[in-house]
C-alpha cells in the first residue's frame, strides 16, 4: 500500500479534493487540544545540563491518533496527516516531541504549541483563496491613495520649512 493510501486509511477522511468545502461552511479549529485525550511520555533529554539533566525525565513526547481525534475538524484530518507524515509511526500515531528547555512543563507546553501551530497552518492553507481581479483593484486603489497622502505630507512639510525662511529680517 502506498504511503498516501496508508495516510488516508489512518485518518479515514475523504479525498483531499472533497475535503475543501466552501469557506463559509467550514468547521474551524478552535485551538483547544484536550490534554486528557493525548498520551504523554517523558524521557531523558539529550544535550548539556549536568547531573540534573542526566537523571531527570524532562523530554516530552505527545501521541495521538488522527482518526480518533474528534477535536480536529474532519476536513483537516487528511491534510494534517499528509503534513505530519514523517511524524506518524507504524501504529498510526502522530508523535510530537520537545526537549527545548530543562523543565518538563515547558516542554509539554512546547509540544502542544507545535501541534496547535501545525493545525492552524494546515487550516490556513485550506481556506486560502486565489486573488481576484476585484482584490487587485482594491489593492491598487489603496496603494495610489497611500502614495497621494505621502506626497501631500511631503508638500506640507516643504511649505512649512520654506515659510520659516521667507521674509526673515530683523
UniProtKB/TrEMBL annotation:
One of its GO terms (molecular function) is translation release factor activity, codon nonspecific. It comes from Mesorhabditis spiculigera. SUPFAM superfamilies: Peptidyl-tRNA hydrolase domain-like (SSF110916). Its EC number is 3.1.1.29. Residues 148-164 have a biased composition (Basic and acidic residues). It is an enzyme of class 3 (hydrolase). Belongs to the prokaryotic/mitochondrial release factor family. Mitochondrion-specific ribosomal protein mL62 subfamily. One of its GO terms (biological process) is mitochondrial translational termination. Residues 32-157 form the Prokaryotic-type class I peptide chain release factors domain. Pfam families: RF-1 (PF00472). One of its GO terms (cellular component) is mitochondrial large ribosomal subunit. PANTHER family: LARGE RIBOSOMAL SUBUNIT PROTEIN ML62, PEPTIDE CHAIN RELEASE FACTOR. Residues 148-170 are annotated as: Disordered. This is Large ribosomal subunit protein mL62.
Amino acid at each position: 500500500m502506498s504511503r498516501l493510501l496508508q495516510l488516508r486509511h489512518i485518518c479515514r477522511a475523504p479525498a483531499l479534493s472533497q475535503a475543501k468545502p466552501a469557506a463559509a461552511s467550514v468547521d474551524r479549529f478552535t485551538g483547544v487540544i484536550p490534554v486528557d485525550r493525548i498520551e504523554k511520555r517523558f524521557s531523558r533529554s539529550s544535550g548539556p545540563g549536568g547531573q540534573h539533566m542526566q537523571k531527570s525525565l524532562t523530554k516530552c513526547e505527545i501521541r495521538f491518533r488522527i482518526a480518533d481525534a474528534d477535536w480536529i475538524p474532519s476536513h483537516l484530518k487528511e491534510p494534517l496527516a499528509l503534513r505530519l507524515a514523517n511524524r506518524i509511526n507504524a501504529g498510526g500515531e502522530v508523535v510530537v516531541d520537545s526537549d527545548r528547555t530543562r523543565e518538563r512543563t515547558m516542554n509539554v507546553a512546547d509540544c502542544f504549541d507545535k501541534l496547535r501551530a501545525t493545525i492552524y497552518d494546515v487550516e490556513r492553507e485550506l481556506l486560502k483563496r486565489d486573488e481576484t481581479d476585484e482584490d487587485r483593484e482594491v489593492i491598487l486603489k489603496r496603494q495610489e491613495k497611500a502614495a497621494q497622502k505621502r506626497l501631500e505630507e511631503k508638500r506640507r512639510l516643504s511649505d512649512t520649512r520654506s515659510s520659516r525662511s521667507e521674509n526673515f529680517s530683523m
